[in-house]
Amino acid sequence: MTSADAYVRPTEKDEVAAAGSELIGGPAGRRARDGGGWWSPVRVVVLVALGMFALGMVQKLPCYNGGWFAGQSAQYAHACYSDIPHLYGGRGFAAGLTPYVDRIPQDVSGGMEYLEYPVLTGAFMQIAAKLTVGGDGLQGEEQLYWMVNAGMLMACAAVLVVCVARTHRNRPWDGLLVALAPALALTATINWDLLAVALTAGAMLAWSRSRPLAAGVLLGLATASKLYPVLLLGPLLVLCWRAGAWRAFGRAAGGTAAAWAVVNVPVMVFAWDGWAKFYRFSQERPVDFGSVWLIIQQRSGHPFDDANIYATALMVLGCAGLAFLTLHAPRRPRFAQLAFLVVALFILTNKVYSPQYVLWLIPLAVLARPKWRDFLIWQGCESLYFLGIWMYLAYTSSADKHRGLPEEGYQVVILIHLLGTLYLCAVVIRDMLLPEHDPVRRDDGSDDPGGGVLDRAPDVFTLGRPPVRDEHAGAGPCVQWGASER
Prior knowledge:
The chain is 62% helix and 0% strand. By secondary structure, it is mostly helical. It has one domain. The longest helix is centred in the first third of the chain and has 31 residues, at 137-167. The relative contact order is 0.11. It is a multi-pass membrane protein. One of its GO terms (molecular function) is hexosyltransferase activity. This is DUF2029 domain-containing protein. The chain crosses the membrane at residues 38-58, 144-165, 177-207, 213-240, 252-272, 309-328, 335-355, 375-397, 409-429.
């Protein structure tokens, strides 16, 4: 276990963190001790995260006090929209319907015959509905439903920051990047994504502790909540291939499949049509907000019916490029770096980039590149997009078109938030190609503190050239253009 004195303090290693710390008394002094007494780094990070989450709830206050029920324009103009209250009635929870089993009346759902969310998210929504008691009419119940969900999602946020703070044993203060992320506070209660994000963070923590089966189980549960977490098996596959750690990968993949099946198979057997709705909807959904495909569609004036094909092709090509980069890099990349890149690739090529999707990337970005300047640049772009999408919707939903952001302005905002994500991807790729720029490896000489069995493991397979050999990356013969398990 890392001693408190060995913790990497951002105020000593990061110029932006040091400058920002002047607001609360300046950088840590020579007598500072992390972990002594009650104020441990993890407790501080959790308290900050809960405070920021509460501020995000306050930001939704105009909608809670009537904006959700006063027509579309009001909730967009105040930038406080949330799916949660609308789906309480719109997906049959107010009527006591069972998700996936009971068909939703068309006049209630607006055409969605079954709940279009994965099974574990549907269970989360159903539990919240059962806890929603005592509301005054449908509007009062929708307000209470949002509040119950906000409380449950706040617990997910606490789990998230604890997992991030503990994944890199010697860098718990990096969790403050997650806790203070503006986009986390702004988007946490738009939808139910934080459930999958917290489970994914738990899986990465378990992997960092060399518990691949537990990591796989948590990853399977996360995939039963949202589709994107299964993408993390790709980086694990390539990294374990390079290190020859096939047993660990097999346990993780097996745990993922088993956990996903335990949640999904019963619903598949008894309510196939309801279970399959999420996957059909994902495939059939047209080009939507936030994506580069929407810009192309709006600029051309024609529906982009082939977006699925192009998005899939770009995703496959991008994954192939990441696999080559992983096997060819002079030093094996860290798990968090590849996890961030593959999820970012999925979002960037997807036909929709909803504002809450930034939650998927925040913990991965912190573990991949815990640098305050780069993180804040990206968060600035995402915060701008958060305002931009609601102003655009306010413009399109208002009768007089005199308020909000017109189509051309919204396209500029989309480009800014896409470029912000691409910027962060670029610096992570640079860190992989030039490991001396990686703040995790540079600050304390570690190899991959989140890599579990991969940390300091020797390579058994690379492409083109042997890896850099040093005391941190591990030692051992390297097999060129072939693989052997040890």
